[in-house]
Amino acid sequence: MLRAVDVGFGRVKGRSVLKDIEFPSAIGDFKPIRFTNGIEEQKLEDRLCIEYEGNRYFVGDIAYEQSVPRVTMSGSRFTSQEGLSLMLSALIILSNNQAEEVKVVVGLPVNDYAGLENDYKSALERKHYIQLIRPDGSNGDFYSFNIDEVKILPQPMGTIFNKVLSEHGEFTDINLASGRIAVLDIGKHTVDLALTDKMHFIDNKSTSFNDIGIFDAYKDLSLELKALGYDIAPDSLDPYITSGKDLKGLSGMKERVFKNQAAKVISRVVNTWSDLWSFDKILITGGGSLLLGNYIANSIKSDKVEICNNPTMTNCSGYFKFGKKVWSE
User: Around Cβ 246, how many Cβ atoms within 10 Å?
Assistant: First the structure.
């Protein structure tokens, strides 16, 4: 069975033949919840508690609700118990059975790829045992996943494969695949740039930046709001950004902050891709593209720029299509 999982620093995304999933990339130490009223949201992604290798964790949304969540901001996270727990939690939600043999396609940030690929592969390619825990601390269903083969990609390559491959892993646009395709992937904490030429990964034109993700703009916004008397931490700003929840002066503030953040990103893009005029397609993706994409596209001023639909899932969707191609499922 094929599974694609993208363990980002902001959100975990997963895909199987039957479903797409997404949940916050956060984990916290588990402590039994003393009271549940029985009418809370029962969707697994929202109440995800697990035991893995002797340790119990809250995972995803419930980690923010019930613990002090950890979101480790280094490449070592992927091979640690934190990263593996997030990966296996995604496999639980995607699973059809409690015991499965799976092939998995995953990704790593561009600058972490060379140093971590072998370690990540070794950490994943084995049998894993994981148990769901009910919020009151009692044991839930027990799962085993035998990951018999793993393919690891630089994360933005997922977006390229999503663009040029069909759901069955076949090339849909040979002309584009034969050209130069660039990806600007704006995550919560990182920005990745990747370039391919005739589907060959161009290493010296591909890189990662850990200081200009959308969270950097959230920090600036939080400081400006504090000056107006609103004490809202950057991690708590999402409802005010995405749901239209209003605060006096927020609308103009958002435009100014996001435009400034986009300028920071564009500066790095131009320094890395001084020849971007020669590219056949420039794909803007990642969750941050929902907020910065239009500013960046307008600054680049090229009809070759495309802001991806459903940008939080494009890498993961591409992983899945790549898996279809290499394993011919």
Answer: 9
Q: Which residues of 1-36 are buried (b: 16+ CB within 10 A; e: fewer)?
A: bbbbbbbbbbbbbbbbeeebbbbbbbbbebeebeee
In the chain, the amino acid numbered 216 is: D
| Same-domain status, 147 and 264 | no
More confident residue, 37 or 13: 13
Sheet holding 20-24, edge to edge: 20-24, 11-15, 2-7, 99-108, 139-154, 127-133, 48-52, 55-59, 27-29
From 129, 153, 177, give the residue that closes a domain.
153
Q: Which domain holds residue 103?
A: 2-153
pTM to 2 decimals? 0.93
Number of domains in the chain: 2
- Does any domain span residue 221? no
Residue 21, beta-bridge partner list? 14
Q: What is the pLDDT of residue 246?
A: 66
Q: Would you say 88 and 133 are in contact if contact means Cβ atoms under 8 Å apart?
A: no
Give the integer Cα–Cα distance in Å for 142 and 51.
Answer: 9
User: What does the pLDDT read at residue 238?
Assistant: 79
Residue 193 has pLDDT above 90, yes or no: yes
pLDDT at 233: 85
258 pLDDT above the threshold of 70: yes
Amino acid at 179: G
Give me the CATH number covering residue 163: 3.30.420.40
Residues 309, 164 share a domain? yes
Q: Residues with Cβ < 8 Å from 86, sequence gap 6 or more?
A: 7, 12, 25, 27, 59
Rounded to whole angstroms, the Cα distance separating 95 from 100 reads: 8
Over residues 59-76, the pLDDT tens digits come to 999 998 898 887 777 788
